[in-house]
Amino acid sequence: MTTRPNAAAGGTFTLGGDMTINRMGYGAMRITGQGIWGEPADPEKAKQVLRRAVELGVNFIDTADAYGPDVSERLIAEALHPYPADLVIATKGGLLRGGPGDWYPDGRPEHLREAIEGSLKRLKLERIDLYQFHRPDPKVPFEDSVGTLADLQKQGKIRHVGLSNVSVEQLQMAMGIVPIVSVQNRYNLTDRASEDVLKMCERENIGFIPWFPLAASDLTKEGSPLMSAAARHQVTTGQLALAWLLHRSPVMLLIPGTSSVEHLEENIAAAEITFTPEEVASIG
């Protein structure tokens, strides 16, 4: 591997036919305080991580109004505005916070309209390139929430619409209302419950953004295929888990998050790892 990793090594993907991004991106959830709540202990360090990500070729940053809340979006603007021309900032709305580690959905149309105005102001943007519905709200008809995003897109406040934490059925329903360019669901080496959603994204050329990408559990035990492959490549099991996701599907878009420049560089270096057919078969 090179001493200066480059996110471009993981290849590119075009969202919605007009936004080409490097598949190795950055998730800005961890730049807030403990429990994804409040200000970070060192705001300047958080902004340093954001700037370093861009220096290393990251042109896709994922955030949400619920991270802090509001903190992550504001720090992104403080660190990076005015933004590079090729930088895509994706944010999300539809979750509220009760405190550290406490999350609950709010998919009401009036809330989503208020949420996007807040995101536009904090990010210092006139239009959100990718706005994602953070989680379906069981108290609100799903089509009402998605329809609100469709209306906001018509108003020019959203360029492209994405979803998060959805089933195949919900994705199909949303696609009947507005073009969907991305889905962000939990997915990693040991949790592939969203495999059916990933396959649908592949068929429809929709970007799939896995959250909690580094979980590997038993696969990190001594002598496991993952550990053996990591030793051969002289990388960490975390790096190999990220590289496996990039290899898993051409629509996979990674957004590993961290509050450390060192860990950021390690994550981005994973874009350079290639697998042999034997390694793919052994890891599964």
How would you explain this protein's 3D organization?
The chain has one domain: Alpha-Beta Barrel (TIM Barrel), CATH 3.20.20.100. The protein is built from ten helices and eleven strands. The chain has helices at 43-55, 71-80, 109-123, 142-154, 168-175, 195-204, 225-233, 237-248, 261-269, 277-283; strands spanning 12-15, 19-22, 26-27, 60-62, 88-93, 95-99, 102-105, 128-133, 158-164, 180-186, 207-211. The strands form three sheets. Strands 3-4-5-8-9-10-11 form a seven-stranded parallel beta sheet, with helices on one face. A two-stranded antiparallel sheet has the order 1-2. Helix 1 crosses helix 2 (71-80) and helix 7 (225-233) packs across helix 8. It is globular. The relative contact order is 0.15. The model has no long low-confidence stretch (mean pLDDT 94).
Spell out the key features of this protein:
single chain, seven-stranded parallel sheet, alpha/beta, 10 helices, two-stranded antiparallel ribbon, TIM Barrel, 11 strands, 284 residues
Instruction: Output the structural class.
Output: alpha/beta
CATH superfamily: NADP-dependent oxidoreductase domain
Series of H and E elements: EEEHEHEEEHEHEHEHEHHHH
Radius of gyration: 18 Å
Query: What does the overall shape look like?
Result: globular
Second-tier CATH architecture: Alpha-Beta Barrel
Q: What is the count of β-strands?
A: 11
**Physical arrangement of strands within the biggest beta sheet:** 3-4-5-8-9-10-11
Mean pLDDT: 94
Distance between the termini: 24 Å
CATH class: Alpha Beta
Q: Tell me the major beta sheet.
A: 7 strands, parallel
CATH level-3 fold name: TIM Barrel
Number of separate helices:
10
Strand composition percent:
15-25%
Number of domain units: 1
Helical percentage: 25-40%
Taking pLDDT < 50 over at least 5 consecutive residues as the criterion, the unreliable ranges are none
